[in-house]
């Protein structure tokens, strides 16, 4: 397992690339949720999501070790991040994306000079192909979540939350493969263990929820959810033990609740977040957290929305 020292080291590595993203507030959401609500705005991060943190930490290490090519398997945000930092370092990158990948994310990868290859619909299909591409090009695979350097990079979100808000009671984090939440858990629980960390998954993509119930990594069939960044079939072998050790709770939200939360944030806060971000807001709005009169931080993990699909994501 990584330690909080690994996260501090990651911050030193990535500080010249990432943004220290702001904390937003909403009086209306605080009233609705019966808590003082704060929002860690990773949708305003470089490349539009938290993924640039871990990607920068890992790709810089690849460059130090002499890699002249990198590849990644990604539904979009991780691929954008890898393509961006690889381009900054002058390293060619190929990103293996699902057949139904968000076009705005694919176009963004191309804008960072990343080559696109489409493969399957799930991470379990994309990852083996990404490994093959790396071998074919004598390069390095940049995993989306199951890697110590990736986890440590994502954990810098937790460090910033602790520094930006004087008193935090609860941090709410989306769960896909588990890189973000395992990094944040490490940063927070090794610094101030009294803070609760609650993970959120879509009801249709609850692989980590089920794995915790079973006490071991458990796969689920491929699923469909508008929160495409959370559409994994099982948690990571490195991330799951961290989640199992530190997590206080995991809650589930429906597709309708995700849409309603995303709509509220757009209409009332004037912030465009993607569905994967909206799960944390949904958990707070629809009383899933079970806490009241607390300082609650929802991590808004990304804001890369295909405008062509926006009508399908919001409540009219």
From TrEMBL:
It comes from the Bacteria. SUPFAM superfamilies: Tryptophan synthase beta subunit-like PLP-dependent enzymes. Catalyzes the anaerobic formation of alpha-ketobutyrate and ammonia from threonine in a two-step reaction. The first step involved a dehydration of threonine and a production of enamine intermediates (aminocrotonate), which tautomerizes to its imine form (iminobutyrate). Both intermediates are unstable and short-lived. The second step is the nonenzymatic hydrolysis of the enamine/imine intermediates to form 2-ketobutyrate and free ammonia. In the low water environment of the cell, the second step is accelerated by RidA. GO terms for molecular function: ATP binding; L-serine ammonia-lyase activity; magnesium ion binding; pyridoxal phosphate binding; serine racemase activity; threonine deaminase activity; threonine racemase activity. Belongs to the serine/threonine dehydratase family. This is threonine ammonia-lyase. The keyword Iron-sulfur does not apply. Residues 14-302 form the Tryptophan synthase beta chain-like PALP domain.
């Amino acid at each position: 397992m990584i330690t909080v020292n690994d996260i501090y080291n990651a911050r030193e590595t990535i500080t010249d690339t990432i943004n220290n993203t702001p904390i937003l507030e909403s009086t209306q959401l605080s009233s609705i949720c019966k808590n003082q609500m704060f929002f860690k705005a990773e949708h305003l991060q470089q490349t539009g999501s938290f993924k640039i943190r871990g990607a920068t930490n890992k790709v810089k290490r690849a460059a130090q070790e002499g890699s002249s090519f990198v590849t990644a398997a990604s539904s979009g945000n991780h691929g954008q991040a890898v393509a961006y930092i690889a381009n900054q370092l002058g390293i060619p990158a190929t990103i293996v994306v699902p057949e139904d990948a968000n076009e705005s994310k694919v176009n963004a990868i191309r804008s960072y000079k990343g080559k696109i290859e489409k493969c399957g619909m799930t991470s379990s299909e994309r990852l083996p192909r990404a490994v093959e591409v790396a071998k074919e090009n004598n390069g390095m695979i940049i995993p989306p979540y199951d890697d110590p350097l990736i986890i440590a990079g994502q954990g810098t979100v937790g460090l910033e939350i602790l520094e930006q808000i004087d008193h935090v009671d609860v941090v709410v984090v989306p769960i896909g493969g588990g890189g973000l939440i395992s990094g944040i858990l490490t940063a927070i629980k090794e610094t101030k263990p009294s803070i609760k960390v609650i993970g959120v998954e879509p009801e249709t993509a609850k692989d980590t929820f089920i794995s915790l119930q079973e006490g071991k990594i458990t796969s689920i069939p491929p699923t469909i959810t508008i929160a495409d960044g959370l559409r994994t079939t099982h948690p990571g072998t490195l991330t799951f033990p961290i989640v199992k050790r530190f997590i206080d709770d995991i809650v589930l939200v429906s597709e309708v609740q995700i849409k309603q939360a995303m709509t509220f944030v757009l209409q009332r806060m004037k912030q465009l977040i993607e569905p994967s971000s909206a799960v944390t807001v949904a958990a707070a709005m629809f009383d899933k957290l079970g806490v009241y009169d607390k300082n609650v931080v929802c991590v808004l993990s990304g804001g890369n929305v295909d405008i062509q699909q926006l009508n399908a994501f919001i409540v009219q």
